[in-house]
Amino acid sequence: MRTQSRRRPRVTLAMAAAGTLLAPLLTGCWVGAGGAGSGGNAINVLMVNNPQMVELQKLTADHFTEETGIEVNFTVLPENDVRDKISQDFANQAGQYDVATLSNYEIPIYARNEWLEPMDSYVAKDPGYDEKDILGPMRESLTGDDGKLYGQPFYGESSFLMYRKDLFAKAGLTMPEHPTWTQVAGFAEKLDGFQPGMKGICLRGLPGWGELIAPLTTVVNTFGGTWFDKDWQAQLDSPEWEKATKFYVDLVREHGESGAAQSGFAECLNNMTQGKVAMWYDATSAAGSLDAADSPVKGKIGYAPAPVEKTDSSGWLYTWAWGIQKASHNADKAWKFVSWASSKEYEQLVGEESGWSNVPAGKRASTYENPDYVKEAAAFQEMTKEAIEGAKPNDPGVQPRPAPGIQFVGIPEFTDLGTKVSQEISAAIAGRQSVEEALKKSQQLAEKISEEYEGR
Predict the structure, then answer these.
(1) Could you give the CA distance from residue 246 to residue 243 in angstroms, rounded to a whole number?
(2) pLDDT for 179-214, tens place per residue?
(3) DSSP assigned state of 65
(4) Which of 45, 36, 35 is nearest to 335 (CA)?
(5) From CA 265, how far away is CA 311, in angstroms rounded?
């Protein structure tokens, strides 16, 4: 099976221009001081607004800056917006941001296009960082085709099912050790309205290749579908794709959260935390927030592996990692920040300051040997590690495929393709068109990619 990593992909217009097109719309969303480029004793960091990053922002001045004297100016944006902004700045090598949160999807592609600073020399001079402690799947996913490191994980995740075990008990329901999607749909029906205002499940419906498409693609995989077959033939109009998508859309429309077409990770996290939904299928990293000391649902959440149908497992592999822009004028200081933000010491700090369930885990083996973390995160830590280590990015379905990736296809064009397909399917969730109509349009979009890759 050929993998995309064996050739240098071209840079798509969408990647280079998306931020330019959206920049005027994003300025009102910025948090922090982004400036026209870093300099002196300051660096600029552009990052997603997930809870773990927000916690980092709170701790930086009193700890990292206090210790190093390096000021950090943060720009914090929602996931879809931050991806556009990063692609604009890094593709143009504008140098406005020294460090950005990038995933294991972007980093290999950015590395091939020489937009990132290799980290090997920094790691070699920083033995206290302990690179060997980084979990193998995470380290491998952030390594370029040339064998060099281009990213360091802030936290890693797979996906699993979160459910209100107290409500299951009251309703006389038992979550199987390895649930199927068919069983999950049955539970959602029974728990929908079990309490006033309670919906059966929360599933992402917000457009975005990193929002709706992430969980949906894992469902497609385990239902027997794939974006492209091994010969790059588009498969979005296949019976497997249609069955999986109709299942997902029907489930969230019939028993899912209110406003599902505009609900992403953050909205589902709020719904679960506020007791508005009985189940939620999403990132394992959400467990730390649900089990935090101040969480209204602490101690009420149970965890089960990602539901399956035709495969043995279906969880994704993902990391929000730190990348240093090649054009940075402060790469040395940027590394100091990256080293601190991904270190054992930072995890210790979060554990002491905010509770061990809030630690950005999923990246270091030592985390799962730390008795404080193991005790505090007992409800989910073992299952999280098993999900990460059991993820199969090169073989996530029932048939060979031409590029790596579980919840994405590891080619540059996927950002544009995935986003456009997500818009069609989100419209089906909103009731503006049928699943069949959404997939007919989506297939046409995917066929354009097929034409570019056939025979390669």
Answers:
(1) 5
(2) 999 999 999 999 999 999 999 999 999 999 989 999
(3) I
(4) 45
(5) 25
